[in-house]
Specification:
Layout (H helix, E strand, L loop, with lengths): L1 H9 L14 E6 L4 H16 L7 E7 L5 H15 L7 H8 L2 E5 L5 H12 L4 H5 L1 E5 L6 H10 L12 E6 L6 H14 L5 E4 L6 H11 L2 H4 L7 E9 L8 H26 L8 H14 L8 H4 E7 L1 E3 L2 E3 L17 E7 L9 E7 L6 E8 L7 H5 L7 E7 L3 E9 L7 E9 H5 L6 H11 L8 H18 L9 E3 L6 H8 L18
Parallel strand pairs: 1-2, 1-4, 2-3, 4-5, 5-6, 7-12, 8-17
Antiparallel strand pairs: 7-13, 8-11, 9-10, 11-12, 13-14, 14-15, 15-16
Helix pairs in contact: 2-3, 2-16, 7-8, 8-17, 11-12, 11-17, 12-17
Amino acid sequence: MQELDQLDQILTCRLDSRRKATEPCSIVIFGASGDLTSRKLIPALYHLYIEKQLPSPVRIIGFARREKTNEAWREELKEALKKFSRTKPIDEAKWTEFSANVEYCQGEFSDPTAYKKLEAQLGSYGNPQLRNNLLFYLSTSPSQFAEVVEHIHNAGLLKKTGEQFWQRIVVEKPFGTDLKSALKLNGELTRFAHEKQIYRIDHYLGKETVQNILMFRFSNAIFEQLWNRHAVDHVQITVSEKLGVGGRGGYYEEAGAIRDMVQNHLLQVLALVGMEPPVSLEAEAIRDEKVKLLKSIRQLDPSQVAGNAVRGQYSAGSIDGQARIAYRQEEKVNPTSTTETYVALKVMIDNWRWAGVPFYLRTGKSLPMSASEVRVQFKPTPNVLFAAQCGPKLDANAITLRLQPNEGIFLRFNGKVPGNTTEIRPVRMHFDYDSEFGAYTPEAYERLLLEAIAGDATLFIRRDEVEAAWGIIDPIRAGWANQPLTEKEFYAAGSWGPVLADEMLAQRGHAWRLPHSTTPEIRP
C-alpha cells in the first residue's frame, strides 16, 4: 500500500506553475455592509491571508452608505467571522494581523465626492501597486453596477488601458433579467472598462467538483472515448434544494427558478459537461468552447415549450416530519403567484458529438434533499444474453459526478451476486474527495477571489456566454408568460416535483434518478 502511495506521489502533475502570479493590490468592496461581505467575502479573504495566498502587501476597503469607523467595521466583521469561518475558533493573533489591512470608506453610490474620498484613501498608500492595482467587487444591486463603474472611471480609478498597473471589476449575478437587459448592462459596463477587465462571478464555478469536470473528461482517455452520442443514452443534471424561499420571497417573485438557477448555474454545468476539448488550458480557449456549446443548444419557440420545459410551484407539505407552508404563503409572495419554484428542461444539442442525446436539467425548492450532481446514463446493452433474460431489471451503466454534498464520482455497473445462484445486481465504484485526499475543499469564493486577483478569467463568465444563455431562456419564459398554473404544475413540499416533469421524460422512455445517496434508485 505504501508503495502505491509513493507511486501516486511520483505521478502527481502540478499545474500551479501555470497560475499567474498575484501582485500587491487593493480590494474595494462596494456594498460592504451587505450579507455577502460578512458571510462570504471577508471569510474567504481572511483564509487566503492566513494561508499566505493573498499578495503582500494588500489592502481591503469596504465602501458603503452607513457612517462607521475602521474599528467599528472591523469589529462587525470579526463577529461575523466567528459564525461563518470554516475554521473555528478564529485565531486572535491572525485576525489582528489581517484586520490591520482592512479599512472603511463611507459614501453614497450616487455621490461623486465619495469616490474622490476613496481616491484620496487609496492615494495615501505608499506602495504604487496598492494605489493602482485595484479589484473592485460590486456586491450591490445589479441596477447600480453601471452607476458605480461610471463613477470609479470618472474618479480616475478605472482605466481601460494600462501596461504597468491593472484594474478589474467583479460583478455578481444576475447579469440582467433577459437578453435585452443583459445587452444593455454589458454595453454600459464596457463603456468604461474593457471586457477583459470584467469578471462575472458565478460561485458554482468555484466549486472544486465543478472544476474537476474538465480534468475528469480530458485527462482520462477511457471516459472521453465514451462521452458522445454513440455511448450515452441521456444526461441528467440535478440541483435540488431542501429549503423553501424563506425570507427571499420578494426577490424570488421577480426571478423565479429559471432566472435564479437555470440561466447561470445549470447551463454553466451543462456547458462544462458537453463542450469540446479546448485548444489549450488558457481562459479564452475554455470559454470559447463553452460558448460554442451554448450556441449549439436548440432554441425553442414559445409553442414548443410545453413538451420541453416544465415549471412547478410547491404547495404545503412536509420535509423530515416538519410541516412546510406553500410558496404562496411565504412572506412577500403574491397569494396568486405563478412564479416557478421548480424547473425541468429537456435540452437538445445540435452538434456532431451530442446529436439526438437529451440533456435533462432540473432544479427546485422544497425538495426532499439538497444535492447537485450530473448523471451520465449510458445506452443499454443489446437485448441478448443477460439483457434477454433480465429485461428492464438489467440496469444501464452510469457515471455520476457528485458536485455537493459528499463530493465525488461514482461508476455504476452490473455484477454477479456471490453464491451458488446466478443473480445480477447494480454495484458502484466510489471515488470520494474526503476519503481519497483527506484535505479540505476550499470555499468557492476563496478560489474565485484568488483567480480575480491573479487575472485568470477561466472560472468567470464572458459576455457572450451570458447573452447565449439568455437566448435559451427567454423563449421558455415567453411560453409561460400570462399562463396560469395548472393542477399538474403544483407539487407538495417534500416531493420530487410536479408530475409533468415525470411525463416529459416518460415520452422517451426515461425516468428521473434520485440524487446519489446510499442507494440511488429510479424515482417512484
